[in-house]
Sequence to fold (80 residues):
Amino acid sequence: MILTNSTIVATIDKILDQTEKSILSDISSELSNSYQKLDDSVSKLEAEYDKIIADGKKEADKIENKLLVVLILKPETNNF
Fold:
């Protein structure tokens, strides 16, 4: 069987076209996966941020209460 140049070129073009479609499909799929991971991360990060803020407020309240106790119980030690 003798292959002509045009047959070889057509075969190569077909293989390249299939490979291109496969690569583009893989890239598109991975891009979608990346977007989904980012979307999932946003809600987790927002929840973590909210927890950090809430913990900070609790600590601030504790410090404020300690200061009030000191000011109320030992007024002679403050210079306010």
